[in-house]
Amino acid sequence: MRLTERLGIDVPIFAFSHCRDVVAAVTNAGGFGVLGAVAYSAEQLDTELSWLDRETGGRPYGVDVLVPGKLDARGVRVADLIPEEHRAFLDTLFSKYGMAPPSRATGSQAGSAADDVARRVTASGATGLIEVALKHRIGLIASALGPPPPEMVALAREADVPVAALVGTVEHALRQREAGADIIVAQGTEAGGHTGEISTMVLVPQVVDAVAPIPVLAAGGIASGRQMAAAIALGAQGVWCGSVWLTTEEAETPQAVKRKFLAASSLDTVRSRSRTGKPARQLSSAWTREWDGENSPGPLGMPLQMLLAEGAMATIGPAAERGEPGAVELANYFVGQVVGQLDQVKPAKQVVYEMISEYAEAVERLAP
Amino acid sequence: MRLTERLGIDVPIFAFSHCRDVVAAVTNAGGFGVLGAVAYSAEQLDTELSWLDRETGGRPYGVDVLVPGKLDARGVRVADLIPEEHRAFLDTLFSKYGMAPPSRATGSQAGSAADDVARRVTASGATGLIEVALKHRIGLIASALGPPPPEMVALAREADVPVAALVGTVEHALRQREAGADIIVAQGTEAGGHTGEISTMVLVPQVVDAVAPIPVLAAGGIASGRQMAAAIALGAQGVWCGSVWLTTEEAETPQAVKRKFLAASSLDTVRSRSRTGKPARQLSSAWTREWDGENSPGPLGMPLQMLLAEGAMATIGPAAERGEPGAVELANYFVGQVVGQLDQVKPAKQVVYEMISEYAEAVERLAP
Question: Are residues A306 and A245 in the same domain?
Fold first, then answer.
């Protein structure tokens, strides 16, 4: 059975977004919205999904969790694990870019925000989010890093919800199949966020052949109907897009970052460990240049660098919104090389319809 | 007019190769072979092209030159410009990998081979090769680095031979159009050889839109019919392939390197300055790891690093062929990420036919 039939959707366009409005808009346009859950506590996620249940009126949507799973944060104040050298570098950075030093006081907002994030990116935290998600009418659970843990697969199986898993190599794809993934998302190096080194063009056919008959979605470099047609030609059954929604009307991308995205070329991204500790493609900014530069102590691992970065960005973001020039220089966000194509703010629904229409044209051009 | 009609070919598969047998085989299979001329002196090129004229019996083929053009080598012994520090590092490298030290004597074979190469990669050298090429029935001149110099375009125009130019960014594409290129080859970062940072999936549609109505070929990540269909879906009028020919029966790829290619995965390439001085994707080997490693003085610029590397490879290649383990570790060659797909030696003609057949299947799958 084709994936669209199996999931009950009109078009195989999967929209990964941290913004519920984007998820609802794509699902309601006939695609499949997937909410990135890492930004939410269990309670917040429950609220968001109740909203989505109402807004999508029975159409399917999914939830994406991050399971790096090395560090179990229960009972530990993770923020305390960040070395003084890295805190000092952050202080220097804030000072160099004309910002007030980041707060370090015990129980500070940034500190506890970091602890919250830390709890959610551990295996136990992710499972908690999944338990919440399964109380709602979700149609897919996606695991963005590493094989889904057995308890996650078991819970999903019991609820008859398919599990999708993102991979950057054939080896990872085979491991994900082993772990019980029902759908593989083959994500090329051009993608935003955590990404490997192999391009979508090269990766997708290899993964399709390796895991057949498991359906494969293509991710990375896909933000238009021509790119969607290319992905299908490579053997994918659909496309998994993230970056293209970041400049939609619905996206909650901070305005300062949205403006940078709209102005950026495809050369303005970098695969850097500076935001999470693992290589993740993002807009290059003073943040990535300084952390990857000569005077840097080097990014920490995952999840410590993520805690440090999220804490800092919680200050940088609002300062950039207020127009503070140093903060604007530092501000960035995960985005793929397709950022060079994004030069207009549009409703998410329009993005879906334009992709479908351009896809049809591309297919017609290919017809013999 | 479609490019295939304009160039008088059956299928828009362009084969870049340094091996005349591959060029002839692809042209005779209905594609378009393009001979990389940088390895030849003017006299050798004349001989190769006379052979191609006979073998292809009136079917079109082309010639590719490298025009980095910063250093004019006339009257200079270029090998003398290589710093002692880099020669010393090379000595250490040879010793570490159990090889006899590279010869440095005045008038040594490696030295004069380097001088020969140097002469050919300058603007005057490239023009000399083009003058030779235009005495033959060539159907295309391609410029692999930088905009074609005005004299090259003028010579080609006079002979009514179209000029193709390789680009890795939209900006370069616009510059190439300005310089008079008739065909743009948009080459993604996954390609072998000199390549930029943007993936084929992202680059091709941007270049197609930027230079329309100039026809665009897609390069990088294309070694199968599915990938060819994807390239056409992206808006390209054809595909420019290099890596896929390196493991064909006809290819003169040294056996030691061919074996490494057949065994390699798509993770086994690296974009490194260690072979030419400019970032070029190649098989990772002890050569790339050492030059890009901590104890390295860092690669020189183009063309000095190319001279140093070509001189060294002239010794490493034969030693690897003799099975010397250190030489086998060092040996490498330019290749794209598609190397992970190449696991069988086939005749070049069969590669063309399989691409065409898989292309047709992919198009059929896309049909509504």
Answer: no
